[in-house]
Amino acid sequence: MGKLRKIIHVDMDAFFAQIEQRDNPLYKNKPLIVGGPLNRGVVSTASYEARKYGIHSGMPISKARRQCPRGIYIPVNMEKYLRESAKIRKIFSRFTPLVEIIGCDEGFLDVTGCEKLFGDALEIARKVKGKIYEDTNLTSSAGIGPNKFLAKLASNMGKPNGFTVLDNTPIVIEKIKLLPVSYIWGVGRVTEKELKSMGIDTIGDLADIPTELIEARFGELGKLISNLANGIDNREVIPNHEVKSIGREITYRRDIDDFSILKSTLLLLSQKITRNMRLKGYRGKIVTLKVRFSDFKTISRRVTLKQYTYGIFDIQKSAISILKNIDLERKKIRLIGVSVSGLKESFLLEGLIPSDRSRDESLTEAIDTISNKFGENKLTLAQIIEKDDIFD
Ligand code: TTP
Ligand code: MG
Fold first, then answer.
1. Domains of the chain and any CATH numbers
2. What are the C-alpha distances in Å from 271 to residues 52, 265, 285, 360?
3. Which atom number of ligand 1 is nearest to the Cα of residue 46?
4. Sign of dihedral through CA atoms 220, 148, 105, 66?
5. Helix %, strand %, coil % for the chain, to 5?
6. 361 in active site
7. Ligand 1 cavity residues, CB under 6 Å
């Protein structure tokens, strides 16, 4: 057992919609739907008044209009929301350097040991919420717990304008077990459906099944959600600036000089890296290829892309282009690795990614969805499966 941690999770309420309601008195207390393009697009978010009509993020606007014809529909004004987002981040960082921002409106603060400066976790959470309101006129919801899972669950339970503490006590755990599995971080709609088909509806149902079984079915994600269902969560709060690069490498069981195998490997590595980038919310601009030859000589070369991306083929193609420039004559490769640096959090790039990028990125998202469903290790692209035996 590690030391007892104190984690705070703060999430803005109906973020885009609340900002628009703040700025336009005509929108106050009304069902307000932010999203676009207005007739073809999806809902980014809806005010709590609109949620009563069953409207939620990701729903096609056409459907929302049918369910709530009297709603007010407005487009996204990302620049404006990012200005508020920056203020919120700044407030978080006043209390601890251990701040991990997720997306544009939420963050985790590890305030273990901060009592002397700012008071206990409850007091800090109260101060953060208060300061956010003071500086932005926006409400947020705070959750406090001994780990990220419980802190996030707590902030979600009290929404809007909530303040909830969840300790790892038997009473709390019993209560959590009654919640639907979809409350678990990482259980998306696809996973939820699959779990339901296995007869798992609640967090308690999931906790009752041995972790190995869930892992066998869902891969790494399975292990994570099974542990979370049991209240086990050792994930640290990782300050965003500390993520400098995201990469993977592979050592072959025997040394390789077959270019098609190397190419497939780069595809596999790119898939794993881009999945990780998306999970953490980054795009990157610099691709580095590392190659270790059979004589252990190791080289690494990098290219800088024109655009920030998390597209699988953007990364793979860059790595291949580097590989082509390396003299492989009479040499065999023992290890190959790819990493992406020059990272930027995706939400900061919103609206700045030109549409010709989006095809590769959409493909990456689709592959992610399939990976979530079948477990990361079950899905490998193209011919990699056949060559599986050459990797360590
Ligand atoms: P969320 O925090 O998920 O949602 P929210 O702040 O609107 O509402 P809640 O009170 O439940 O926290 O997301 C933050 C913002 O991110 C949201 O206001 C709009 C944007 N967003 C999208 O654009 N698309 C999406 O699918 C989601 C989930 C969010
Ligand atoms: Mg929010």
1. 1-165 (3.30.70.270), 169-241 (1.10.150.20), 245-388 (3.30.1490.100)
2. 39, 10, 16, 12
3. 7
4. positive
5. 50, 20, 30
6. no
7. 11-16, 44-45, 57-58, 103-106, 159-160
Catalytic residue chosen out of the listed positions 49, 84, 106, 215: 106
Handedness of CA 25, 31, 33, 38 (dihedral sign): negative
Question: Are the CB atoms for 15 and 45 separated by under 8 Å?
Answer: yes
CB atoms within 10 A of CB 50: 26
Closest CA to 151 of 128, 119, 118: 128
57, 185, 349: which to mutate for ligand 1, most atoms within 8 A of CB?
Answer: 57
How do the pLDDT tens digits run along the chain, 392 residues long? 457 999 999 999 999 999 999 999 999 999 999 997 777 788 999 999 999 999 999 899 999 999 999 999 999 888 798 889 889 988 999 999 999 988 789 999 999 999 889 999 999 999 999 999 999 999 999 999 999 999 999 999 999 999 999 998 999 999 999 999 999 988 888 889 999 999 999 999 999 999 999 999 888 889 999 999 998 999 999 998 778 999 999 999 899 999 989 999 999 999 889 988 887 778 999 999 999 999 999 999 999 999 999 999 999 999 999 999 998 888 999 999 999 999 987 766 655 555 455 677 777 777 766 665 555 554 454 434 344 444 44
DSSP state of 54: T
pTM of the model: 0.74
